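Exercise 3.2. Students should predict the tertiary structure of the chain below and write it as structure tokens, then compare their answer with the key that follows.

Predict this chain's 3D structure.
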Amino acid sequence: AMVHAELAKLSPREQQMFIDEFTRRRKSLAIAVLLWLLLGWHYAYLKNWTIQFLFWLTSAGLGIWWIVDAFRLDKMVINYNKNVAIDVMRDLKVIFGSPNAVKYTKPFSSGFLQEVHND
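Answer key:
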């Protein structure tokens, strides 16, 4: 809800930049399910390497953890994507938040924006 309210305050250009970057960074439930089925790679996909290591170390909790994750996976992806939305909004605020700091922006090689200061 916080991101949605902040998004409404952005210009159409900034909103499109948010959508483009969020779309690039977000994770897919379908891919997470596929990776869950294939040896439990879903935590790595969601960039949680510590839990991924523990998952493997315990043999997925002797299989119990793997089964429980079947019911949790959708919420895990939703929470990951919420955090991505917050991060993208924070990045946009850093770039556009101070009118005197940023004079021009151009794409990074990663596809997002890089600040260029005209001093």
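Discussion points: The two ends are 37 Å apart (CA to CA). Residues 98-119 have pLDDT under 50 and may be disordered.
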